[in-house]
Each structure stands twice: as structure tokens, then as C-alpha cells.
Specification:
It is built from 14 helices and seven strands. It has 513 residues and is mostly helical.
Amino acid sequence: MSPASKNLRRGLPRIPGGDPWPPVEAENTVAPQVAEVIAVPAAAATAPTQALRQGLPRVAGGDPWPPSGTTANIPSSTAKAQPSPAATPAPAPEPTPAAPEPAAESAQPPAASVIAASSDSPGIRRGLPRVADGQPWPPSSFIAAPLSTAAPPEAVEAPAPAQVPAEPESMTKQEAAPPVEPAAVQPPATAPAQAPAPTSAKPAKPEPKRHGPLTSKQWVLASVLGAFCALGMATAVVLVARGITSTDSVAAFIQRYPGEYHLPESAPVGVPAWLAWNHSFNFFLMVLIIRSGLLVRHQKKPPAYWTSKRSPKVSINLWLHQSLDLLWIINGLAFIVVLFASGHWMRIVPTSWEVFPNALSAALQYLTLDWPTENGWVNYNSLQQLAYFITVFIAAPLAVITGFRLSAFWPKNPSLNKNYPIELARALHFPTMIYFVLFIVIHVILVFSTGALRNLNHMYAAQGSADPAQYADNWTGLLFFALSLLAIAGAWIACRPMVLSSIAGLFGKVSSR
């Protein structure tokens, strides 16, 4: 098959979403011209020629297109414009390009030939530059001959040489110049200039240390916000409670049930010294138990381990927690025994059903900030009595039972473990600790807000009278309370691995593994 009879290969579209290029109508027109360009007829052999630059292959894995050695005739006007090496170097004027029709620029010719385009063909798509730091190719001045001006192949006596736009002189010089490093290549004229990269980057700001889910600053902000929210809610509760107690029916209810009922005639009066000492030691142990329990709950790698002949190996924090629990249980058992032996149980165990309406009356009085005026040396109000009863006879035994199930001293009995699973004990033990924390906080607030000196004299100095004003200015109880706080602070600081290892070493073996 002769070159002139070969079908023209169609490639990618020139515009997005368009048809493959060149169009089917241009096949009979372009094929003879492509054949003439490749064959280079003898009639045009004497004309100046120029080697075509090779581009991408037409098929995957093929050779660059057009084939190596393919040349194209340079038009006579262009040949005359090129200076001869022997002639005097004088720049010749560039040929004036023909005026293009509006929006009728032709596409880059495949196989280095001029492709005739129809009058309604889209504009030419410009691609990458031919040389580094050059302009997009083909130049914007490149146009294609209209399809209507092309004559039939048989009417053409001598096919015109392929019109290949000559590259500008500046581009020719750029080809001869040494390659430019990629860092020195300037962006295209149409792209915005890029800012130079900084020579030295600023060191990254360290991420703030987190204490749990929040940072220190976030905890402070959350505390302030929580305080404002609590103040707003407390104000609303006080206003609502005062509105309720201002009604006649509620006022009559409070008058009938003032907040306390009379104890039996055999009930003792006052707070003995043993009860004051037991109360102080119980407060000391409760604070340290809560601290050691939190250490056990949040520890990742124990700082040390403790073991003995009768005990399995446990962490040093768990040893501290269980040791404090043991002292707390002994102190509580002593309290229960002496409480019932001395008759003081009637002060914290309800002896009448009137405890419930009086407790409700006391709660309303607390919410209105018009608090009950009972004398704790003689009797507690009903709300206090119920709170002490729940703490001593419900919360404390629940903490002991669940704590023993979680300890290493629990027997390895499958049936016992099935009836009392460890998940149940874990689900109850931590909420019980939360209850003790809330009870201590509310208890201390009420002690200081209902007569601090008088109440502290009752519970720390065992001093009081049926007359509430007799010990209202005595500072002995406050002094003992301050000394107990110093002892708690010292023990809190001493809960460190170095100190604990020395103490635990007296009762067993301490190791780092």
C-alpha cells in the first residue's frame, strides 16, 4: 500500500469532551500531504528543510512520533528570511502572519503537517514548552488553513510543502543554552509568582501537657465555667424553694415538723472523747484511701511490687490501698462496738417514723438558706441522721464487700466467682467512693457554715453544752482540726514509692518487677 493511500490515524480530542482529532472529513485531504512530507518529492528536495522535533508515541510502548529523520520544507518566504552564513548578519523582518478568522485557530498538525480545519473548528490547545523556560507550544500566532481553501488532491499539480511554524529566534537560542536547573525555572507567565521558601523554619510549638482529657488551661476554664453554672443553678434552686415555702400549706408543714424529733429518754447527750478520736482518725484514713484508690485506678506501670509468704505479688500502690482499708475496717468495727455499747447508736439510727417528714422539712430549710438551728451536742436533725445512717450502715459495708472482691485475697473458687462476678464489684466500688467524696465535701461545708467553732469543738475537742452559745467562741476544736489537716497533708506527700518501699519492706519483700 502506498503512503498516499494509508488512512490517517486519529488521536485524542483537542478540547475536553470533543471528538478524536483530526476529523474524518480531513482524512482524504491530509493523507496526501502527510505522504508528501514523509516522502519528500524530488521537486521539493532542493527547498530548505528542517528536522522535526519528536514528541510522544502514538501508541503505548511505541516510538516517539514522528519517526526519526522526518523533515519538512521551509516556505520560501521563511527561507529568504533566514540569513546566510556568508552574508552580512542583518535581521530580516519576520513574515506577517495571515489574519486568523475569529475563533477559528487550528490545532497542532499531527506528523508535522498542516491540518485543514473547518471554519467552526475550536481554537488550538497549547501544550508544554519545547525547551526549558520557554512558552507553551505551538505559539499563539500559529493558525491552520481553512478547509474550504484546500483543493481536491487530483487538482493539485504540486502539493504545497507542509507549513511548519518556525520557532522564534529566542527559542532557538534557548535550545543552545545549557539546561537550567529545576530550582531556577520560572513559573509560566500566566501563573502567579510563588513566594520563595523560607531559609529557616520556626521550631514547632510544643503541644501542651494534658492532665486527663484536658490541658491545665482548659481545666481552669472548665472550672470557672462550672463554678458560674453551679452558682446560677444554686440561685435558681434557692428562689424556687423560697417560693414553695412561702405558701401556707408548706409553711404549716414546716411548723409541724421543724426538722428533728425527740430522742428516747435513755439517749445519751454529748460527744465522748473516744468518738472524737475515732472521728478524727476516720477522716485521716478516708482521705488517704481515696488518694491511693485513684493511684491504683490510673496507674499504668507500678513503680514497685510487694509480696510476702502469705500474699501474692501486688503493686506498691495496691498494697498501700489495702493496708489503709484494713486500718479503716478495724477503726470502723471499734466504732460500731462502742456505739452500741454506749447507747450512742440512737443518735444516728432512726427510732421514729417522724424522721422522714422532718428530713423533708430540714431539706426545704437548707434550700431556702434559712437553715435548721438544732444543737448537734444534744441531737442531730433528721436529714443528718439519715445521712449518717446510710454512710455507716450501708455505704461502708458496701465498700468493704466490693473491695474485698477486687483484692488479691479473694478465694479462687469458681462457683463463688460465678455468683459474685468481679464486674459487679467493680461497677459498685467506684460509685461508692464517689458517694464518700460527696458526703465529705457537703459535711465539711455544713460544719463551717452552721457554726464552725461550735461544731469543731464537738467533733475534735469533745467540748459542748446544751446551751449552743457556750462554746461558740472556743478555738480548741479548730486547733485540733488544723493539726489533723497537717497530718493528712504530710501523709499525702509521703505516699511516694521511695517512702512506701521503706515501710512496705517491714512487712514483706519489695522489688521493681
